[in-house]
Amino acid sequence: MLEGAATHLEISRDDIDGTVHTGTDGMPSLLFFDTTPGGAGNAIRVGEHFAPVTDAALARVDGCECGLESSCHACLRTYRNERFHELLSRREAVALLDAVAGRIA
User: Are 79 and 42 in contact (CB under 8 A)?
Assistant: First the structure.
């Protein structure tokens, strides 16, 4: 989602970040936040453009040429998620982004 946000909003990937938070109800939520001092409004823009941001993220993951059960630096892998590289699966990412896109369509 963060890479999709950077692509769609035409911002540096370093200007936005996020995490998954599990609420008291046990349901996961995506939390986006600006990393620029004082904020730049990018997290708000993600919310305002959530459908095209999700589409951009899906296009990045779905259009990659690496194996469906793996990932690479062109789709899911970054320096920030290095400790999870072996767990990342394009197939699972596509399924998740499809589900998110279906809920907002």
Answer: no
Question: CA 78 from chain center: how many Å?
Answer: 12
Token pair, residue 10, equals 């035409």
Question: Could you report the per-residue pLDDT of 56-96, keeping only the tens digit for each?
Answer: 999 999 999 999 999 999 999 999 899 999 999 999 999 99
Closest CA to 82 of 92, 72, 91: 72
Residue 105 has pLDDT above 50, yes or no: no
Please answer whether residues 8 and 52 qualify as being in contact, where contact means their C-beta atoms are separated by less than 8 angstroms: yes
DSSP E strands, the chain: 16-22, 28-34
| CA pair distance 33, 25, nearest whole angstrom | 22
Structure tokens at 34: 């600006």
Q: Which two tokens stand for residue 61?
A: 């993951």
